[in-house]
Structures are given as structure tokens and as C-alpha cells.
Amino acid sequence: MIKKIKQTLTHNTGYKLLALVLGFLVWLLILNTEDPVETRDITDITITEINADQITEAGKAYSFAGDVNTVSVRVRGKSSLVSHLTRNDFSAVVDLSKLSITGAVTADVTCPRYTGLEITPIGSSTVLNVEIEDVMKKSFNVRVLTSSNAPAGKYIGTGTATPNLVTVSGPASVVEQIKEAVVDVGVTSFNTGDITTDSELILRRSNGDEVKASSLTISQNIISVSVPIYNTKSVPVKLEVSGTPADEYELISFEYEPKEISLAGPDDALDQIEEIVLGNYDLSGAKESIEETITVSSAMTEELPAGVVFTDAEPEIAFAADVQPIIEKTIDISLDKVLLNNTKTGYSYEKSVSLSDTTSTSVAITVSGAKEYVDQLTAANLNVSADCSKCTSGNNTIVLAVELDNGVTLVNPVAINVIMTGEN
């Protein structure tokens, strides 16, 4: 019996081994077809430092050159696994006790959750250069930033941070890059009331870029923020002028815009304000027209109530005053254009320049006033008349009436001679 079993096992041994190898290869083929090997790059894996105490206990600080705090690797393994990996599945540990003499250290990248993966660095990304230097400590006021997306009719007030001062310590070269410490609070159209929230502190350079350095120590990273949301109110702005222009000059008109300014603040404080009064603009000695921009906050006669602000950061008023030189102008008026008023029925009237001058056909009228208005006067548009209501038979000297406006006046009265004759 045993002999028969032995013969069965050893019969055609070559064929049986061949079948076994082929079966294994088929199994491998099926396995690789259904779950092939895949290679992926995993980037931005955050590093974790250990054994930094040997540096800090020596009173020194460290930072990674170029502010680098992530590494990148290439992973090879089964597609069913590799395709679902993220950077959060990896650990990148930098052991600062293993610094080389040149300050270089290699990050040890592993995938704790999964085994059987082939992990290799991408280039030299896992080799980090560590800079060791003196520790610097510096304090910064915390500035609250808010979006400008205020609800309709509302104004975002100045936010308050608690604490409003933080202390940052770390490598001098990194701390020196910090320009300011801010917290950013988003405001939407749904925020119709005051906002109270906690926000993460952000350290920024002078160009606005964020300073991200794991080697920094901050006295407090989470800041409590309160942002008031105010109602708004438009109030009129009043501006008058004072003083007089230089001799032989005249103020024609003045104007300013806008006539209203928008304010924001607590309701009880807004109720106290009915108008914004600016100090008079002094025109004393002016010899030309004026155009000037007036800063409202510096020209107000009274300060705003506590808590009230302008909705524009620094509102301005555009002011213009039309100052014209006073000039004289002589206009020859034809006697035919002189209108005789209040004449009597049954009489005839004859005009002459004077009793002694009966041949001239025009009379000279000299006016004085602002150049803009005087230049507009011509013989064609000047209305001149003589009142004949008190005329008697014969020669009558009558002072002419000249219609003038806009401050234009006659330099001297002008009279003509009117001869009234009864009809036969």
C-alpha cells in the first residue's frame, strides 16, 4: 500500500512541479491585475521635532532654514491602499539630537497605520537644515481685522482683542521678520448684532505674508475678540465763510460737497447729533478763486460724542469759492435805446445827450463790479430808461435808470436832456 502511494507521488514529478509553478504564476497574475502596484507622491507632511531640549536648555533657539516645516515622499504599494493615502497618514519626525556638524538633520518618515509600503524621499526634501541662534523676545499689540461685508445700514466697529498684547520668543532672525500680530474676524450680512468669538493669532511680515515658524513660542495663540456692529446715520454738514477778499476783489459765490456725512455708533450717542458744523472758511485778503479739500475731523467746531465714528475713515469736503476782481467798464448806449417812461398824452419828447450837446447819438455809462458779471454787459443787453413823469414843457434833465444786478453798480449817475413839447 505504501509502495503504491509512493509511486503515485513520484510518478511524473516534472509535470507536477511545472503545474505548481504555473499555478503560482497565474495566482500572481490575477492578484496584480485586480490590485496592481501604484506609486504616488505625498507632499506637505508636517514635521514633528523631538529632543529639542538640548538646544533650548543652552539658551539658544532653532529654526529650519527657509521656514520649511514640511517634507515630501514617494510611496509605492498596492493600489487599493496607496490610492487612499493622505499626508495625515504619515509621520515625519526630526530628532534634533542627531544634528550633524553642518546643522543638517534627516526627517524619519513612516506610515504608522499601514505596513508594507515603500517610502522614499523626493529629492532632498527630507533633509532639513537647522539654524541655531540667540533667542529674541518681543511684544506685539494685537490688531483686529474685519471684513468689509457689513450688513445693509450697519457699520463694523473697531474690534477689541483680549489679551491685546502678546509676547513672541524664538530665533532672532524669525522674530525680526514679524511686523504685526493680528486676528481676522469674518463678518457676513447675517451679523446684525455685536460679534464675540475666539480667533487664532496670526503673525505677519511687513508685506502681509504670514510668519509660520514652529520654533516660535507665543504667550497666547487663541484670542478672544469682540466686534461691535453699529447702526448708521446721515447728518447735514454746515460750512460758512468769513472775512472779505482783498481790495478791488469780490466773493461771487461759494459751494461745498457733500452736504451730508454718514456716522456710526451706539444709538444713544447718534441721537445726540443733528448736524456737523465746520469752522468758517476765512476769505480775508483773497485775490483769486479758491478750490480746497477740507478734512472734516480737523475742521469741526465740536468733537463727536464718545463711540461715534465716521463711516468713511477720513471724510473730506470739497470747497470752492469764486473770487473775482472788481473792474470798471464804459458802455455807449444809443439814445434810441433809452426808454422814456411815464410820458404824457398829447406831448412829444426829444432826447439829447445834454442841453448843450444835441448832435451826439449815444451816452456813455460806466459800471463797476465783479469781472465775470461786468464782462457780460453790452449795449444790447443793458436796459436803460428815463422817468418823464415830472417833465414840464421845454428842456428837462433826467437821471437815467440802469437795470443792474449781481452787485454791479453805476460808477456815476448819468443824465440826458429831454425836450417836452405840446402837440398843436
Number of strands: 33
Structural class: mainly beta
Q: Provide the CATH top-level class of the largest domain.
A: Mainly Beta
Distance between the termini: 182 Å
The description of the largest β-sheet is:
7 strands, mixed
Number of helices: 8
Name given to the CATH homologous superfamily of the largest domain: YbbR-like domain
What is the mean predicted local confidence, pLDDT? 87
Strand content: over 45%
Cα radius of gyration in angstroms: 48 Å
Helical proportion, percent range:
10-25%
Counted up, domains total 5
Would you identify the regions where 5 or more consecutive residues have pLDDT less than 50?
A: 24-31
CATH topology of the largest domain: RNA Polymerase Alpha Subunit, Chain A, domain 2
Categorize the overall geometry.
rod-shaped
CATH architecture of the largest domain: Beta Complex
Write the layout of secondary structure elements.
Layout: H1 2-10, H2 13-34, E1 37-50, H3 53-56, E2 60-64, E3 70-78, H4 79-82, E4 91-95, E5 104-106, E6 108-110, E7 118-121, E8 127-146, E9 154-156, E10 160-162, E11 165-171, H5 172-175, E12 180-185, E13 195-200, E14 202-204, E15 217-218, E16 222-227, E17 229-238, E18 241-242, E19 249-257, E20 260-265, H6 267-270, E21 276-277, E22 281-282, E23 290-295, H7 296-299, E24 309-310, E25 316-334, E26 339-341, E27 347-352, E28 362-370, H8 371-374, E29 384-387, E30 394-399, E31 401-402, E32 409-410, E33 415-422
Parallel strand pairs: 1-4, 8-12, 17-21, 18-22, 26-29
Antiparallel strand pairs: 1-3, 2-8, 3-7, 4-6, 5-8, 8-11, 9-17, 10-16, 11-15, 12-14, 13-16, 17-20, 19-25, 20-24, 23-25, 25-28, 27-33, 28-32, 29-31, 30-33
